[in-house]
Design brief:
Blueprint (H helix, E strand, L loop, with lengths): L2 H18 L10 H6 L8 E5 L7 H4 L7 E5 L7 H14 L3 E7 L3 H11 L7 H14 L11 H22 L2 H8 L4 E7 L6 E5 L2
Helix pairs in contact: 5-6
Amino acid sequence: MNPSRDALTRLQEGNRRFVAGTSIAPSLASPARRDQLADGQAPFAIILGCSDSRVPAELVFDQGLGDLFVIRIAGNIVAPSQIGSVEFAAERFGTPLVVVLGHSRCGAIVATLEEAMRPAQQQSPHLRSIVERVRPSVEPLLHTELRHDHDALISHAVRANVLASANQLRHGSEILEQRILRRELLVVGAEYSLDTGVVDFFDGV
């Protein structure tokens, strides 16, 4: 039995239910379940996702109270606080799976590409901090043929950003790296389609 793979299978099955419209999530958020979780939690997966209002992880994966440890930030970027949050869940709860969840047509990715092509003079330092974390993974794409195809550029940039974030989690923390080496933790990258609702696990699976 592999807890990481089992957790991934649960997410994949939940996403299939979400896409098919056969959700069981309401039963997983009942008052009885809430009472059961009042004194503790054991989330089976950590989701580092984008703050986009159209991509709530619990709904996308058809999970309920206590199932997912969710970290959301524009562009699903990895900064020290996100690494610390993942470390916390992995160490405290023994959660065996981390999913970096990007999504199609991500606004943070679009903003970063626009900034790379036409720097904004009035951008706030807070927004710029997000853009600057996304930029290294997507800027090289502007030097390829993709620069002539706006939609393809964004699509590739979304995935490049997910890959970069997943690799930062794999190699930016001694705690996480050791858990990965001991096969206690799996980090994967995925993309949610705004059009279909399907989550494509394309990295680390």
